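Tutorial sheet, problem 5. The two components below are modelled jointly, 630 residues in total.
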Amino acid sequence: MNSVWMALREVTRRPMRSLLTMVGIVIGVAAVIAMVTLGSGATAKIRANIGALGDDLLTILPEVSQRQGGQTVAGAPFEHGDVEALGRELPGLELVVPATTQRLQVVSGSTNRSTSVTGTTSGFLRVRSYRVSQGVDVEAALDSSRSVCVLGAKPAKTLFGGSPALGQTLRVGTVSCEVVGVLAEKGSGLGEDPDEVVLMPLKAFEQRVSGNRKVGVIYATAKKGRPTGALKRQVEQLLHERRRIRPGEANDFGVRDMKDIADTVATTTSLLTSLLGAVAAISLLVGGIGIMNIMLVSVTERTREIGTRLAIGALASDVLRQFLVEASVLSSLGGAVGVVVGLGGAFGLSLLLGFPFSVSWALVLGAFVFSAGVGVLFGFLPARTASRLSPIEALRHE
Amino acid sequence: MNATLLRLESVSRLYGAGDSLVKALDRVDLEVKRGEFVAVMGTSGSGKSTTLNVLGCLDVPTSGVYRFEDVEVTTLTDDQRAVLRRHALGFVFQGFNLLPRTSARENVELPLLYRGVPARARRQAALEALEAVGLAHRADHTPAELSGGQQQRVAIARALVTNPSLLLADEPTGNLDSERTVDIMNLFVGLNRERGLTIVMVTHEPDVAAFASRVVVFKDGRILSDRSKEVA
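Model answer (structure tokens):
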């Protein structure tokens, strides 16, 4: 304890130099903590966004596939029969919702907006976790064949401004429809903006907008407790048969499991976080070299002092310990400052970027212990140099 | 008072080899009794500083035997000699060698720190040692705030604080004017007479050597003369 106290005295004796020596460690520790904290914030946010899509959700969509001979073939849209078959033959599925989307011009009075118009059924609201903020019997309206529409938060805002949208008439493409509902804002998500939508009943959409009965996407949700992985395989098998894909040929459709996507994205982000942390850790090593440099200078400057200490009874090991402790006190102080700076920086940036902020105490402790270790590691060479001085020569040193 | 404190028996200290061989000490025999105040004189290169380094257990003779109290120093390891210095020896240097930006009291406490003395006892002993050299009122001043004479007094207090058997001084007045020199020498004489402290002091000034009770003169690594003053 005495040596720590003595080292603190020594470090505070030359405050400016100690501060400059510590800067490398401060930056290193701060960078590691900020990087890793922001990285896990980003991961948490992405997970939450995917979770908002519903993690028991299977998204079934046509895909481009390669046939023998290298020919690529675009997968054909689904049919109503596919939707019915899924619902009938796979009891593990809770909801099976067809949806067909087109990008169309939506006009109200003098304002217009290009937005994605989706013909679907009431289940869509549930599988995509939309909440209705205005409107009555919106679900019944979506299951009807009436020419009505439900607006996402963004088109509702831009087309009608502050005035109520309910009951107004819109022109979607060439069709006019009545607004029967407005969806609550979902906030940004992954990929497409979930608020940039206009929903129409599937029947009305097919009759008036698309003019056919082709289904672009099928959403399906698993019943509670059913593993999505197994359902995914069942869906693939069923559609494989219905779409008459020959053995050995690749499927011309895909079934996406939200859990898969979430896991992939989270793994990618945390890998990225580790990489950033590792890069930041290199700056810690650079900081350690800074400490070694200053400690070597200090040993040379204090050669006479070392000689005096040896003369009045210090053992070589006392001198070794003194310089080692001094180096680790410097680096631990730097580490402590770095922790504060890093957490502060991460907090500020999290606010700015809208990431959730949470402190990992294991990380804080780890970074601090690592910085102290850097001091011991890089303080060793100067300390050994000091402890190997001959007392006579050290005393003679000018 | 007449017990032998230390003895050099045919001690040689050689540096270099072949043509550049230097005999800093050449088969020197020397005995110092408890309570003596010995001045070691000689021109530079005469071997007086090497003698002090050997006596202070900082340097090891090439041949011969050095006995301090009951210990044969020549057989000790580096660490054992450090422990001997810690417990039996006090050093005063020409350049004072105080730690900068550190108070007089903390400087004096330093040898006790290496002995593992607890803080309260350290502080007490340091203040007593400063009192003995007449600097108790300057205990909280740093070396930069003290005059040369005062700094050397602090250094003497640091040497005294462990109650050593032997005080070794290397040109202790070399950096001081004549008035301060007399002060420091009177302090040495007082410590020698009142406490019976054994002192071996290297100097090249006859005026300073005159304060000692015995003067040993070195030349070319050998003792040229060894005269004791009759104490009145």
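Marking note: The beta strands of chain B are 4-15, 22-33, 37-41, 63-68, 71-72, 89-92, 166-170, 198-202, 214-219, 222-228. Full credit if you identified this.
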